[in-house]
């Protein structure tokens, strides 16, 4: 590849990133925002947005796909097959909270995009793997339904991000709180 093609690819990637970041900010505040408003917020011409994305829906699909790919990369980076399960859960949870804070609009969108569906399934498979390992190591009760456990875990993350008021503070502290709730519930630590 020649230097000019590399520069063009880098410029295109920067342009796409600028557009999607501006679209996320604008659509989170105004879900009805138009391509023209997104272009203005990104500081680019409307034709630049249309050159990169065939439609508003294509832009949103691209944003949703990018967000799920980032979550998938965060789960993989936590090493669900090899790292201690509690370490994986904490690291993945903190990373997912950070990603969800940057992609609130995109991650709330329904999608029928096959690439996004694959990313979602990879995330769920990584989650299932670490929960199974946690159960095998005695971190989770042996009779716990792991599908239900995953659903509760993901609900805790979603509620943390979408609750009122919006979460503030350190993602590590929020991850600790989520995992404490998942693994210990809200019952007192010692019973009479």
TrEMBL record:
Limits of the HTH tetR-type domain: 13-71
DNA-binding region(s), residue ranges: 34-53
Domain of life: Bacteria
A matching Pfam family: TetR_N
InterPro entries per UniProt: Homeodomain-like_sf, HTH-type_TetR-like_transc_reg, HTH_TetR, Tet_transcr_reg_TetR-rel_C_sf
PANTHER family, per database record: HTH-TYPE TRANSCRIPTIONAL REGULATOR RUTR (PTHR30055), HTH-TYPE TRANSCRIPTIONAL REGULATOR UIDR (PTHR30055:SF223)
Name of the protein in question: Transcriptional regulator, TetR family
Provenance organism: Micromonospora echinaurantiaca
């Amino acid at each position: 590849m020649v230097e000019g093609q590399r520069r063009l690819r880098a410029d295109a990637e920067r342009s796409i990133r600028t557009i999607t970041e501006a679209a996320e900010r604008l659509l989170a505040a105004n879900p009805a925002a138009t391509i023209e408003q997104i272009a203005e917020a990104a500081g680019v011409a409307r034709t630049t947005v249309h050159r990169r994305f065939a439609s508003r829906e294509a832009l949103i699909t691209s944003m949703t796909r990018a967000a799920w790919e980032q979550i998938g990369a965060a789960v993989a980076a936590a090493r669900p097959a090899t790292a201690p399960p509690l370490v994986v859960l904490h690291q993945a949870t903190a990373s997912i909270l950070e990603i969800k804070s940057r992609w609130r609009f995109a991650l709330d969108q329904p999608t029928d995009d096959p690439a996004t569906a694959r990313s979602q399934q990879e995330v769920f498979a990584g989650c299932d793997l670490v929960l199974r390992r946690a159960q095998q190591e005695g971190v989770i009760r042996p009779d716990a339904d792991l599908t239900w456990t995953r659903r509760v875990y993901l609900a805790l993350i979603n509620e943390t991000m979408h609750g009122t008021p919006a979460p503030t503070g350190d993602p590590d502290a929020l991850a600790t709180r989520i995992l404490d709730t998942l693994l210990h519930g809200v019952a007192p630590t010692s019973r009479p």
